[in-house]
Amino acid sequence: TTPGDESWKEVKGRMYGYAFRAPETLTLVTFPNDPYDIYAISQGETPPEQNVLIGIDDLSKTDKRKKYIALPKEQYVNSWWEQFGGLTGVASIEPFTNEQGLKGYKAKYINSAGQTPNLDVFFEVPGKPNLVIHLANGILDPIIFDKIVESVSWK
């Protein structure tokens, strides 16, 4: 959580053209030689690797058959869970457009315990069908996460 009068800062991708706003008090870290241009949250005892906030999915590198580059990105979002052993399916996908005009999808995936504890957000990147901006919320207050999601832009 963060106080209502908290200052927010703009954070820019180091390799890709995304940007977003985050609370000044939110400690964000990056990883050396990271090809996904990730920002993770460093808080408490949980390793930042388990608190990834935002990064880029480059489908030209991760999709061996390259099928999702040409398909509507909602199909990628619908099958994204298949990459992870701890997920068993999709509970819901909600298309939306954020305040910056990016087309996105809010997805809830089902874990092996039959729960949907986290919200993942995927944004299409204008003019770059091989890129998807991916945000995940594991620990942030939903109001803070929503505000971050609405601030994501591509420059």
Search tags:
seven-stranded antiparallel beta sheet; 10 strands; 4 helices; 155 residues; alpha+beta; three-stranded antiparallel beta sheet
Order of strands side by side in the largest beta sheet? 3-4-5-9-8-7-6
Shape descriptor reads globular
Question: DSSP strand (E) fraction?
Answer: 35-45%
Count the beta strands.
10
- Low-pLDDT ranges: none
What is the gyration radius calculated from CA atoms? 15 Å
Please tally the helical runs, counting DSSP H or I stretches of 4 or more residues. Answer: 4
Give an overview in words.
The chain is of the alpha+beta class. The protein has helices at residues 59-62, 67-70, 73-79, 142-151, and strands at 8-12, 18-23, 28-29, 39-41, 52-58, 87-97, 103-111, 119-124, 131-137, 153-154. Strand 7 (103-111) and strand 8 form a beta hairpin. 26% of the residues are buried. The mean pLDDT is 93.
Topology:
Blueprint: E1 8-12, E2 18-23, E3 28-29, E4 39-41, E5 52-58, H1 59-62, H2 67-70, H3 73-79, E6 87-97, E7 103-111, E8 119-124, E9 131-137, H4 142-151, E10 153-154
Antiparallel strand pairs: 1-2, 2-10, 3-4, 4-5, 5-9, 6-7, 7-8, 8-9
Provide a compact summary of the structure.
With 155 residues, this protein is an alpha+beta fold. It has helices at 59-62, 67-70, 73-79, 142-151; strands spanning 8-12, 18-23, 28-29, 39-41, 52-58, 87-97, 103-111, 119-124, 131-137, 153-154.
